[in-house]
User: What shape does this take?
Amino acid sequence: MPFWIELLVSAFLIIGSIFALIGAIGLYRLPDFYTRLHGPTKATTLGVGGVLVASMLFFSYHNDGLSLHELLITLFLFITAPVSAHMLAKAAMQQKLERIEKTQGKPWD
Assistant: This one.
């Protein structure tokens, strides 16, 4: 395997891991449901996307062809994550879930 492919795969793995770690820390540390929702939907989605791009590069080189499985997984993830976050936020608004003062907007009043 050429050095530049190893470097690209390693870079995407590290960047993806950092984004996933930031998303997990955000999920743990943020104070209310509405702010906590951003951790898994934003940063963790980018983290998984970085790992999948690294996997696509690695297996495309080893199989002598373009690996599209990871591209389809990434596309599905980028489509479903915002939809599921929107549905969770709407359900929380229907339940009138408590929020901290810094969370802006109060659409149920």
